[in-house]
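SEQUENCE WITH STRUCTURE:
===
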Amino acid sequence: MKIAVTGKGGVGKTTVSALLSHIYASEGKKVIAVDADPDANFASALGITKNEIEKIRPIAEMADLVEERTGAKPGTSGGIFRINPKVDDIPEGFGYKLDNTTLLIMGKSKFAASGCYCPEHTLLRRLLKHLIVERDEVVIVDMEAGIEHLTRGTAEGVDAFIVVVEPGQRSIQTAAAVKGLAKGLGIKRVFVVANKVRKDEDVLFIKSSIGDMEFLGQIRFNESIMEADINGLPSYKASRQTLDEALTIKKNLEKLI
C-alpha cells in the first residue's frame, strides 16, 4: 500500500498520516513514513520525543550523502551530476526506527522549489520514486499541497491519493487545486478525508463540495488531539475515538482500491 496525504496547511494531514502509519504498523506491517512537507512534523505526530527528533537529520541536509550519491555539491545547479543516484540503502541506513515504522524526513532544501534542478532535489525525487514504486513496505507520504515534487512516474505508483479537508471554503478550494495537479500527473482517483468535523452538517457540506472526489470518512474535532499536538504526544494515544475513526477510514479505503 502506497499512500500520499496532502491538503491545506493546518487541516490535520500529519495527524491523519500518523494515525494510518500507526494502524498499519500495529497490524504487523512494515511502514515507511515519509515527511515530505517542510512545515510538517511527522516525527512528533508519531510519538518520537523532542530529544530524539533533534537527532534526526533531514536527507536534504546531508551534504556528504548528496555529494557522494550525485557527484555534485548541494546548493549547485546546472552542471553535471548523476540523475539516477543510488538510494535503496537510505531507508535502512538513515531512517529513524520506531517499532515497525521507519521515518524519513526529506528536508527543506530545494525539494519543493518548482523548476529546481539541483543535486539534493534529484536525490530526493529519486528516493521518493524508489519508496513508492520499488519498495514492498507500506509507504505513507505526508506532503504539502503543492505536489510539484511528485513526478508522473512516481505518482503512477501511488495506490491512494488522499486530500484532508476541514469545513471551510479555503480548504475545499485547496482540495480542488490539488485534484487538478494530481490529474496532470495521471492520478485519476482522489480521496477525501474530513477532519475537525463538529456536526453532521459539516460532513454534508464537504460531501456536496468535493465533486467527483471519493469520500473516505471523517474525524471529529477532539480537544484531546489538540492537546496531544501541543505536548508532542501521538494522536493515537490521545483518543480512542479518533483512532477508531481512522481505522474506519482505512477500511473504507481498502474496499475502494
